[in-house]
Design a protein that fits this description.
alpha/beta, Rossmann fold, 6-stranded parallel beta sheet, 3-stranded antiparallel beta sheet, 17 helices, 51% helix, 15% strand
């Protein structure tokens, strides 16, 4: 039976790459409806038209519909893929700027910036869950919306809707590590566990050789290469220190002063850079609508974004029992963490969820920070979901990059007036 997949955030610059991935695997989605929904009407219209042209050109059996409201997109859906950005890049720019004024990294998913993003995101997630419960009671939520960990903690604790959260960061890290070494191996095996954007490898081989040994052999060349980013170089440093590969976001904790200094030194924040580029993406989309054979050469996220989301959905639809690194309830998979904590771990897909695969203990030298992050993210989800200002301050104060009640209060006092339209209950 053909499935319906609602895509909340279907007008984003990421969406055409996502649709392209569906087209590449259309044999597993024959007759499916992809219901694109977005509050950005103009962008949604462009993406919808381009998506239809791409599907027609490829000759695949996919129906792509456009929706301005969540209800019609979600109604009778089998899967709801969330990939939206509440507040857009304008709010993200504030998430980046405000913390830096207090000497803390401003970033999209971690630290205060990630907390502010969650404050905007969870109210929307609440509405999506209500619509799923009312109009698509058998649907599975596949969350690709950041901050992934906090969203997943909230959904799994406060809703009965089945939820799988996904993130492509490990795949992106793998690609950049190999590029830094200038190698194209035939096979790479990388498994990492922990929390979203806070993982450490448990198994890492490159063409059968220990991956850390390969990185150490290339270490000097990578460090001397001006074309390799400091972010990647810090991964090499941490890998040598801890003998396992860290998620690239770990730089913000282990090189706190350096990353703050770099963020302060740049003329434009990451959000501002993206905003300056957005028009060019949609211009490219409009040009491709006019082509007989549309080709995407200018799209946000590259291929990794769409490929991972579609691979997970393929696994759910075809029940192929494939294994992916997912953000799901721990159970007994990671013995170092509470059973009800959401963890990022290899898991085997089922028809309406996934079973996490049991992993070995992690060493104490890395679990200390992970415990702080896990507890913080649960506190954040709970405080935001329940609208408790005092708990909100306590949660932010527990963030490893904040650890200060007075700083947490200042950060909230600064951001709430700027973003009051997204969370009026805290004004």
């Amino acid at each position: 039976m053909a499935v319906k997949i609602a895509i909340i955030g279907g007008g984003s610059a990421y969406a055409p790459g996502l649709i392209n991935a569906f087209i590449q695997h259309a044999e597993d989605f024959v007759g499916a409806e992809l219901a694109l929904m977005d509050i950005a009407g103009d962008e949604l219209a462009v993406v919808h038209q381009l998506s239809q042209r791409m599907a027609e050109s490829a000759g695949v059996d996919l129906t792509i519909t456009r929706h301005a409201e969540q209800q019609s997109a979600i109604e009778n859906a089998d899967y709801v893929l969330t990939t939206f950005r509440q507040g857009g890049f304008e709010a993200r720019a504030q998430d980046e700027r405000i913390p830096l004024q207090h000497g803390v990294i401003g970033q999209e998913t971690i630290g205060p910036g990630g907390f502010f993003f969650a404050m905007r995101t969870l109210p929307v997630i609440k509405g999506i869950l209500r619509n799923i419960e009312q109009y698509a009671p058998n649907a599975v939520l596949v969350n690709y919306t950041n901050p992934t960990q906090i969203v997943a903690e909230a959904v799994t604790h406060f809703s009965d809707v089945p939820c799988i959260s996904i993130c492509d960061q490990t795949k992106d890290d793998e690609r950049k590590i190999l590029d830094a070494m200038g190698i194209q191996p035939e096979s790479v095996m990388l498994e990492s566990v922990g929390f979203n954007h806070a993982t450490w490898s448990t198994h890492f081989t490159i063409d059968g050789e220990d991956g850390i040994a390969v990185m150490n052999r290339h270490y000097d060349g990578v460090m001397d290469n001006p074309d390799v980013s400091n972010r990647v170089k810090r991964q090499f440093k941490l890998a040598r220190e801890y003998d396992r590969l860290p998620n690239s976001y770990m730089q913000y904790y282990y090189y706190r002063e350096e990353t703050v200094a770099e963020a302060k030194a740049v003329e434009l924040s990451r959000a501002q850079v993206i905003m300056s580029e957005l028009d060019s993406y949609y211009q490219h989309f409009k040009e491709q609508i006019e082509e007989d054979d549309p080709k995407l050469t200018h799209v946000r996220g590259g291929s990794v974004f769409g490929d991972m989301a579609v691979e997970v959905l393929r696994g759910l639809v075809t029940q192929n029992a494939s294994i992916h690194t997912l953000n799901i309830t721990n159970g007994s998979a990671l013995p170092d963490f509470a059973s009800d904590r959401v963890v990022e771990v290899p898991a085997r897909l089922e028809s309406r969820g996934a079973t996490p695969l049991v992993q070995p203990h992690l060493p104490s030298e890395v679990t200390g920070l992970l415990h702080m992050l896990g507890d913080y993210q649960w506190l954040a989800a709970n405080a935001i979901w329940n609208g408790d200002r005092r708990a909100l301050t306590h949660a932010l104060a527990s963030n490893p990059l904040v650890v200060s009640l007075s700083l947490a209060e200042k950060l909230l006092d600064d951001i709430i007036p700027l973003q009051k339209d997204y969370f009026p209950e805290w004004v």
